[in-house]
TrEMBL record:
This is Sugar ABC transporter ATP-binding protein. PANTHER family: MALTODEXTRIN IMPORT ATP-BINDING PROTEIN MSMX, OSMOPROTECTIVE COMPOUNDS UPTAKE ATP-BINDING PROTEIN GGTA. Keywords: ATP-binding, Nucleotide-binding, Transport. Residues 3-234 form the ABC transporter domain. InterPro entries: AAA+_ATPase (IPR003593), ABC_transporter-like_ATP-bd (IPR003439), ABC_transporter-like_CS (IPR017871), ABC_transpr_MalK-like (IPR015855), ABC_transpr_MalK/UgpC-like (IPR047641), Mo/tungstate-bd_C_term_dom (IPR008995), NA-bd_OB-fold (IPR012340), P-loop_NTPase (IPR027417). It comes from Parageobacillus thermoglucosidasius (Geobacillus thermoglucosidasius). GO terms for cellular component: ATP-binding cassette (ABC) transporter complex, substrate-binding subunit-containing.
Length: 355
């Protein structure tokens, strides 16, 4: 099902807009993540799509049809919340079949469809257990099976992995992605975890203060952040950021001066304060890049396939990845470099990218 949000507004206290003129198109079968910090309006958006909250103004369309006034039960939506909200006295099978019972589906069909949904999430072997006899990951799967048992046209997932430990999170990420591919169902994930959004979603809407700041594929957001907020929010470790000044085509940062190609950058007419960003992945040991920087090694963090190195350059810090076998000494001075083309520049006032 294709979902369109047009000029959507919602406020709770009449003063501030929890959702501020939001526009978003989610194509049929797409997996979209709403990503942003706490309070940016992700859940409110989700609850409006589900029909639990009514927008103050604007339109919600499903396959082109205006659904603003449709009841939640008529919207053909399955939901999974952070708290799985399973019924403790019911077995796994009964929990999964429950939405069908509410729809008055005959018992035999109910059981058959609940079994199928349980198989989809690989729970076929625990159907007779109660929720308290299940692991966190299994409980999560019950909630998922219960959400898909009605064969909804849209699946809404609100921070579904928050309560799982790191290993289970990765397992369930893969599980949900697989389920999405198998069912081809339009899926919306609400999360504040950029890694979750990056690994699962086809497209990500990055939200701040009730607005979408950028909507694009994970690679778009990583390589071409249109806004400083997005640049900082996406990527681990986060983008290195330095204060800089742009005077015409000349960029000053880290005690260096570099001329920018004005064909590639929206350089300033006069003077402009800028944030200069460089991803840790784009910084290399040695002098191979256009811009060279010397710094003192402050931290060496081995992570198996690489080491994360942090150096101090004057009063600023810079992180980079190094090969796992390179010997680097704590407190030694090293030279690192990067290419001009991998720099990101943002207007300090507006946050907008100068690309
Ligand atoms: P979180 O990740 O913390 O759940 P979120 O991005 O989902 O945050 P929302 O829960 O949508 O954000 O909240 C958006 C704004 O609306 C916040 O300022 C919040 O305080 C406010 N808000 C949300 N629900 C209500 C409500 N029922 N009554 C009053 N204010 C609300």
């Amino acid at each position: 099902m294709k979902i369109e949000l047009k000029n959507l507004c919602k406020s709770f206290d009449k003063k501030t807009n929890a959702i501020d003129n939001m526009n978003l198109i989610i194509e049929d079968g797409e997996f979209v993540a709403l990503l942003g910090p706490s309070g940016c309006g992700k859940s409110t958006t989700m609850l409006m799509i589900a029909g639990i909250y009514k927008p103050d103004s604007g339109e919600i369309r499903f396959n082109g049809q205006l659904v603003n006034d449709w009841e939640p039960k008529d919207r053909n939506i399955g939901m999974v919340f952070q708290s799985y909200a399973l019924y403790p006295h019911m077995t796994v099978l009964e929990n999964i079949a429950f939405p069908l019972k509410q729809q008055k589906v005959p018992k035999k069909e109910r059981i058959e469809r609940a079994r199928q949904a349980a198989e989809m999430v690989r729970l076929g072997h625990v159907l007779d257990r109660k929720p308290d006899e299940l692991s966190g990951g299994q409980q999560q799967r019950v909630a998922l099976a219960r959400a898909i048992v009605k064969k909804p046209k849209v699946l809404l997932l609100d921070e579904p992995l928050s309560n799982l430990d790191a290993r289970l999170k990765i397992e369930m990420r893969e599980e949900i992605s697989r389920l999405h591919k198998e069912l081809g169902i339009t899926t919306i994930l609400v999360t504040h975890d950029q890694e979750e959004a990056m690994t699962m979603a086809d497209r990500i809407a990055v939200m701040k203060d009730g607005k979408i700041i950028q909507y694009g594929t994970p690679m778009d957001l990583y390589h071409r952040p249109s806004d400083f907020f997005v640049a900082q929010f996406i990527g681990t470790p986060p983008m290195n950021v330095f204060r800089g000044k742009l005077i015409g085509n000349q960029l000053y940062f880290l005690n260096q001066s570099t001329e920018l190609d004005h064909e590639q950058w929206n350089t300033a007419q006069g003077e402009l304060d800028v944030y200069v960003g460089i991803r840790p992945h784009d910084v290399k040991l040695g002098k191979g890049g256009d811009i060279r920087v010397k710094g003192i090694v402050q931290m060496i963090e081995p992570i198996g396939h690489a080491q994360i190195i942090r150096i101090n350059v004057g009063s600023e810090q810079l992180r980079l990845f190094a090969e796992p076998t390179v010997a680097i000494e704590y407190k030694s001075e090293i030279t690192v470099s990067f290419h001009l083309s991998s720099l990101h520049l943002f207007d300090m006032q507006t946050g907008k990218s100068l690309r």
